[in-house]
Amino acid sequence: MNQDKRQAVSGGDSLRGIIRFAAALHPGAQQAATVRAVRHERRRRGEFLNSALFADPAWDILLELFLAELEQRRTSVGGLCSAANIPLTTGLRWLDALNRERLISKRADPVDRRRVYVSLSTEASERLTAYFATVPRLCR
């Protein structure tokens, strides 16, 4: 095991460790690991303070959609709301707002018209890519 892998596995700061470990395994996975780490730390606040104080469904949706894009997964509305840990009605309301801002796109499942898939728009993807490129520097 090389030194980067050993250092990542041995502990240290959890956010930095997750990012280093992913980069050591597969350099292309670093951005997805960064997004997962940010999501994890965001949810961890609820262990110390009332999580209702930090409700930000739009950000949770964008994080999940960006992660799905990085992992090349399709995401349905129901699956997205579940992954973002938000009620379906809240998710639908915020998806409409994000759609008006042209940050997401929706498309019907060609096999099951009741299902709708959601993805980031090209512009949103580019903006999130630029944002997350700065995150590892903030964690050093």
What characteristics describe this protein?
140 residues, mainly alpha, Arc Repressor Mutant, subunit A, 3-stranded antiparallel sheet, 61% helix
Structural class call reads: mainly alpha
What order do the helices and strands follow?
HHHHEHHEEH
Any low-confidence stretches, pLDDT <50, length ≥5?
A: 4-11
Described by the principal axes of the CA atoms, the overall outline is: globular
* CATH architecture term: Orthogonal Bundle
Output the CATH topology. Arc Repressor Mutant, subunit A
Strand portion, in percent? 5-15%
SSE order and pairing:
Elements: H1 3-9, H2 14-25, H3 30-44, H4 57-70, E1 75-76, H5 77-83, H6 88-100, E2 104-108, E3 116-120, H7 122-138
Antiparallel strand pairs: 1-3, 2-3
If you had to describe this structure to a student in words, what would you say it looks like?
The structure is a single chain. This protein is mainly α and 140 residues long. The protein has one domain: Winged helix-like DNA-binding domain superfamily/Winged helix DNA-binding domain (Arc Repressor Mutant, subunit A). It has seven helices and three strands; from the N terminus they run ααααβααββα. A hairpin with a 7-residue loop joins strand 2 and strand 3. The longest helix has 17 residues. About 6% of the residues have low confidence.
